[in-house]
Structure formats: structure tokens, C-alpha cells
Amino acid sequence: MFYYLSFTAALFAIGVFGALARRSAMGIIISITIMLSAIIINLISFDRFLEHSEPLGHVWALFILIICSFELLIAVAAAYLWRSDSKANSHENLNLLN
Amino acid sequence: MPAIIETNLALLLPEIFLLVWSFLLVAISLFVKSRTQQFSAIAALCGLLVSIVLVLLSDYGEIAGRVFINSSTALFFKLICAFVAVVSCLLMLTTTKAQVPERMSLIYPLLLASTGGMMLLSMAENLISIFVSLEMATLPLLLMIIISLSKQDRPVAVKAMLTSIFSTVLILYGFSFLYGLSGSADLFQMKINIAIIHLTQRDIGVVILLCVLTLIAGFMMKMHLPPFHGWAKELYRKLPLPLLAFLATAYITVILMSFSKVFVNGLFAFYGPEQQPNDWGRLVSLVAAGAIVTGTIKIIQLKEIRSMLFYLVIVQAGFAMTSVVSMNQLGPQAIGFHLVAFSLAMIGAMSVLYSLEKSRNLLTISELSGLYSSSRPLALYLGLFFLSLGGLPLTAGFVARYVIFEAAFSMANTDFQYYWMFILAGLGVLCAAILFFYFVAIVFSMFKGSSQDTAAVRLSPVFLTVLTLTAAATLLFGVFPDSLLDFSLEISRSFGFIVE
Predict the structure, then answer these.
(1) Is A98 in Cβ contact with B180 (below 8 Å)?
(2) pLDDT of residue B357
(3) Residue B61 phi/psi, 5° resolution?
């Protein structure tokens, strides 16, 4: 369990770093996907190793996969629209903190 | 054999109706031209009014176990969301054709869907249902932002979208730990389980700290609190005011409500000085103090109306968080009262500013000077809403501030270890006083100054009715606050506090 949690924490940290350091929309989306993977592994490992009375982790992981996929799909579409409108990929300079 | 859970879908009728109505409107808007969008607006308005009636008629009870609970607390927040949505819809209805972006008719079904999501969020008592309904409220709102912004402002929409997903993921990471520690997604069960684990296992400190930090960061990003407020600045400048009113009041209200649900219920065991360094109370106080102080300083410095509104939302969120950390029966009551008072004053002020923006292209605070000489009703309404936001006695804003600081000081008085509550409440009082004088100065200039634009602004009867209702409620809750205070005391009960 400890190894799984450490692995997901590392994965999540890489995702956070990527999302904050990247300046392109696609880079940020990929980083968020890495963060989502960490959450899903977290939930499933909790279900696998802890004897919960209601093992909901798998169900929750499925919800996250479906809903966040839709959300990310819209984000990709919005980013694509922006790119095709401006026709200037090099000017893409997104910063989530500012 | 597993116990059969009663689904009780009848209690979800207002939300189901809103979602079905929004799908129908989407289908209609695909076939009608944008010039018939007035039909969409009126249909959306009717849908919202029907859902308000259904909300008022629906019984209290649990839905699908304890996934959703329809209680007086849920009713309270549902009515706020529905009222704000109705006003936003009315404001959009008054938009002239020149200001209408392409495919505007899609905005109305999305507004309904988002309101439905917010209503579900008001009832959510389970981490999974909170996540799902949060997304149901956020996703249509983001789509509205993308649709309503022009091509030049596309980066603002993309940034809002990405920040929203990022904050959701941060919250989810915290939720996953809460689920792992407690073994349950139900908030009430979680409160008990985490308290037991806290007593039996001492080595969960790092996990709790990680969980608290990610949750606070996620919610801060959702509410655009400093230092994560940069992404929303441009959004507040570019977004049409009716949508901004919906975002700044209804959305922030439900986010604050779910924030308090998760922390007060879920992490109840980790509040207090003895829980250091896992005490979320101090961390949230720090965030609240940062929001109040930064917001107040920026409001005084800035000249633009929209920027002032942006920082005003931050300050109000800071005040609401002050009542979240006051872990006594007065805290949740203060949140409820404050959110009603703030929503009323904010939606009223934004409505007036929208009509001024439309007719005069008014952008800065100095341009409000002399408004009374040119447009008396607007000046009177705006003056009242600004004074309520500033906290003038006999308005709802004053009672809200009073209840918040009463809750904070009574918490600080319980033990010397809560000295930081004194600091937070003291900073709050200081900033509230500064804001009061700031708004009094603006209102004074509105009544005494001279106006460059003397053309009177014409108001439609519907618009005037909305303003009158909002202003009357602001005054009513200021002069006779007891009924609303008693009603918001139910929030304290639902959070498990013993109400005397």
C-alpha cells in the first residue's frame, strides 16, 4: 500500500509540475491526465488493500474517467478552436497561476 | 442479502425537470435561428419558475441512501441558485441584438443545466455525488463562457477551462485520501470513521496534511482566491455581466457551501490547535485573511467597476470562510445569512451596472459620479446595494457581517489557543470598516457629484420589478433578520452542531 501511495504521490506531483510549468494548452491537458491517473490508481489501491465495507473506489474511478474525459475533450476542442482562430501556435503562453 | 436502498427519485423532481427542459431547449435551439432566441429565453425562464415551484413543493428526505439529502439547508441554497438564475436570464433577455454573440440561444439551456447541477450540489452529502454535481454545475458554465466570449478572447476561455479542470483534479486527489482513510464516501460516516482512525492510528499525519492542502488549493482555485486569482481577472473583464452575475453569486455560493460541508463534516476531527500541523482551521484562516486583506487593498486601488466586483467577490468569500472556521453553531448560520445577503446585493448591483454599461458604456467608478442627477431610480437602487455590500446598518449586509464576527469572536473566546481567530476577526472588522467608508464615498459621489452624461436610462417594467424585489429583500432582511437567521440555523443543525 505504501508503495502504491508513494507512486501515485510522485505521479501527481509530476502532473502538478507539468500543469504549472507548461505554457501550451495541450501540455497542460496531458499533465492533468497524469494527475487523473494518479487519483484513479489511488482509489483502486485503497479498495484493493483496505477492507472497506463499501468498496466504492472502482465505481468512483469509472465516474472520474467518464466525466473528466468529457471535460478534457471540451478543453481540447476549445484549445483547437483557439489555435485555428489565431493561427499562431508559438504565441500560446498560458499560465494557470497568473 | 444487501439492503434495498430506497431511491426516492420524486425528491429530485426539480433537478430532473431542469435537466430535461435544458435538453429540450438544446434540441430546439439546433433548429431555430438565433433571431428566435427570445423564445429560448422565455422558455428557460418558465422552466426556472416551474423548478422553483417544484422545489417549494418537494418533501424533505434521503435519496438513494444518503447520496443526496433534501433538507431545509438544501432548499435554502437551491432557492438562492434558482433566484440568481432567474435574474441572470432576465438580464440576458434585455440584451440588445447588437450585443448578442453567435449561438446565444445555447446559453439558456446551459444556464438551466448549470442551475440543475448547483441544486444537486446543494443536496449532495457524499463525496461521489459532490464530485458529479460539481461537474454538472461547472461544465455548462464553462461552455457558456466559451460560447459567450468572442474569438479574440478565446485564450481567456481556454484558461478558465484548464484552471477549472486542474482545480477539480486537486479536489479529487484530496477526496481520494478522505475516502481511503474513512472507507466511506458518505460525509456523515466519514466524520465518525476519520475520528476513530485519528484516535487509533497516529501515523496518518502526512496523508491528512496532503489531503487538506490539495483540498484547500482546489477550492481556492475554484473560488479564485489569492494567490490563485490571476486566471479569473480577465474573465471578469470580458464576460457579459448577466453571466458574470451567475458565476459570481450562484456558483461561488455553492462552492462555498460544498467547501464547508467537506471541511466541517468530513474533516471535523482535524480542527483545533492540538492537531498541529494538520489543523485545517489555521490554514483556512490564513486563506480567509489573505482573501479579505488582498481584496480590500485592491478594491481601494482599482478604478474599474468590473475589477472592483472581482475583488469584492474575493472579500466576500473570505468573510464566508471566516464563518467556516468558526466551528460553533453560529458559524454555519452566518454562512447562510451572509450568502443570501451577498447574493441579493451583488445580483442587484450587477443588474444596475449592466443597464448602465449597456446604455452608457460605463466602465470606471468615477463615471458613477452624479448618477442621481441623471437617473434617480438607478442611483437609489445602486446606492442601496453598494451600502449593503459595504455593511450599512439596517441592510442585510450589516447583519451578515455582524453574525460572521459574532461567530468568529465567540470561537476565539472559547480558549486562548484560538488566539488566531482574534487576529482573523480583527482583520475582518478592520477591512469591513474600510469597505464601508469606501462604499459610502462612492454613494456620496453618486448623489452629490456632477454627471457628464445627463441622458436618463430607461428601465423596462420587468427589470424594475426585479430590482425592487431585490432591494426590498435587502432591506427586509436588514430590518427584520430573525426569520432568515432562524432558517439559516437549520444549516448549523445539518452540520451536526447542537443548537440551543
Answers:
(1) no
(2) 84
(3) 160, 175
Instruction: Count how many residues are written for chain B.
Output: 500
Which grid cell is B43?
Answer: 422558455
Min Cα separation A71/chain B (Å): 7
Interface test with A, best of B165, B200, B207 (most A CBs within 10 A): B165
| Amino acid in position B14 | P
Delimit the domains of chain B by residue range. 275-500
User: Residues B226-241, buried b or exposed e (16+ Cβ, 10 A)?
Assistant: bebbebbbbbbebbbb
Rounded to the nearest 5 degrees, what angle is found at the Cα of A80, between the Cα atoms of A77 and A81?
85
Cβ count within 10 A of residue A93: 8
B176 with A42: Cβ contact below 8 A: yes
Among all residues of chain A, which has the CA nearest to that of B127? A60
Domain layout of chain A by residue ranges = 2-88
Q: Supply the CATH classification number for the domain A2-88.
A: 1.10.287.3510
Which residues contact residue B67 at a Cβ distance below 8 angstroms, ignoring those fewer than 6 apart? B124, B125, B126, B128, B129
B327 pLDDT exceeds 60?
Answer: yes
The answer to whether A39 contacts chain B (CB < 8 Å) is yes
Of the candidates B146, B180, B227, the beta carbon closest to that of A46 is on: B180
Chain B residue with minimum CA distance to A98 = B230
N-term to C-term CA, chain B = 42
pLDDT mean across residues, chain A = 86
Nearest CA distance, A92 vs chain B (angstrom)? 8
Q: Which residues on A lie below 8 Å from B158 (Cβ)? A: 25, 75, 78-79, 82, 94
C-alpha cell at position B444: 456620496
What tens digit of pLDDT does each residue of A43-72 get?
A: 999 888 877 667 788 889 999 999 999 999
User: How far is the CA of B91 from the CAs of B343, B459, B462, in angstroms?
Assistant: 15, 11, 10
Angle at B29 between CA B26 and CA B35, to 5 degrees: 150
Please report the pLDDT score of residue B415 as a whole number: 81
Q: What is the pLDDT of residues B287-321, one digit of tens each?
A: 999 999 999 999 999 888 999 999 999 999 999 99
ipTM: 0.94
- Strand bridging mode B61-63 / B68-70: antiparallel
Q: Do A74 and B172 touch (CB under 8 A)?
A: no
Scored b (16 or more CB within 10 A) or e, B334-367 reads bbbbbbbbbbbbbbbbbbbbbbbbbbbebbebeb
Model confidence over B480-499: pLDDT tens digits? 999 899 888 888 888 877 77
